[in-house]
Design a protein that fits this description.
This protein is α/β, with parallel strands linked by helices. Helix 4 runs antiparallel to helix 5. The chain is globular and about 75 Å long.
């Protein structure tokens, strides 16, 4: 079976600068891929190409086994899309907006009630004009629009923008359930915590280029740790992350430095704490590297 998403050397150049450069990415069916990057990194540009809303200067993109330029409306009906700048039709109630998109999606909204309930959207508010919705309520409607027809592929651009922590947790649970049910999720975000909690793999894009593709565990394995040694007299020694050319891994290099520090003060060491970096630190470490293509 072909992957859910496959791009090859996808390139978009804007006249004023920016865009994406030679993005080659493969997203397998039934996985959650987190697409990470700062604002302006190229995430939305990539998504617009996948939806054939933007034509690339070079390269190719296939979605659900079809070239995006050939699939047209029939392909988009198999996709649930949440844009990063969702605008609901003016004058519509929430219910009318959901019904309108259901007709455009060409499939019955079989998951609508379940998604609304899980997000905790107040049902009485569906009969109100969407113009009066809060940011969080509009985002909940947008998530429901993307999920209601049980699409094969979900493409979600900054989906938790404006959501409170409780609703965000409910959304991430829906993402995991979609994956467990065989759907594929392409989740664009700069909120690292939610990607770590919901994604099987992550792709990091920076300045329009892919800088890392792999699991969060693989990303962590490449990152140096920090060690803190506490001595009996109350003083501490912090060994900051550093590269040891003789070590087989960042942890091996740190352990050698811990051993050397402990040997320098025999009998006085009370405690050792080794700290793994958070995902935000890993992200910064990746984009700080020279711009090599991911392996």
């Amino acid at each position: 079976m072909e992957p859910a998403i496959e791009t090859r050397e996808l390139t978009v150049r804007y006249p004023t600068g920016g865009g994406i450069e030679s993005i080659s990415l493969r997203v397998e069916r039934g996985e959650v891929m987190g697409f990470l990057g700062k604002n302006g990194a190229g995430k939305t540009t990539t998504i617009r190409v996948l939806l054939d809303l933007l034509r690339p200067d070079s390269g190719s993109a296939r979605v659900l086994g079809s070239d995006v330029r050939a699939g047209a409306g029939a392909l988009r009906a198999r996709i649930g899309y949440l844009p990063g700048d969702l605008a609901l039709p003016p004058g519509c109630t929430g219910a009318q907006a959901l019904d309108l998109f259901a007709r455009l999606q060409r499939k019955p909204p079989v998951d609508r009630d379940r998604v609304l309930d899980r997000l905790g959207f107040p049902r009485h508010a569906l009969q109100r004009s969407a113009r009066g919705y809060s940011t969080g309520m509009r985002q909940m409607i947008g998530i429901t629009l993307a999920l209601q027809h049980h699409p094969e592929l979900l493409i979600l651009d900054e989906p938790t923008s404006g959501l409170d922590p409780v609703v965000r947790d409910a959304f991430l649970a829906l993402v995991r359930e979609a994956r467990d049910g065989g759907q594929t999720v392409f989740l664009s975000s700069h909120v690292l915590d939610e990607v770590e909690r919901g994604a099987d793999r992550v792709a990091i894009v920076h300045d329009g280029r892919l800088r890392h593709v792999g699991s969060v565990a693989e990303l962590r394995a490449q990152a140096p740790r920090q060690a803190t040694l506490r001595w009996r007299d109350g003083t501490t020694t912090t060994l900051d992350p550093a590269t040891d050319g003789a070590a087989t891994s960042p942890l091996d290099g740190l352990l050698a430095r811990v051993h050397a520090a402990a040997a320098a003060r025999p009998g006085e060491l009370l405690d050792i704490a080794i700290t793994a970096p958070g995902l935000d630190e890993l992200f910064r470490a990746v984009i700080a590297r020279p711009g090599e293509a991911p392996t």
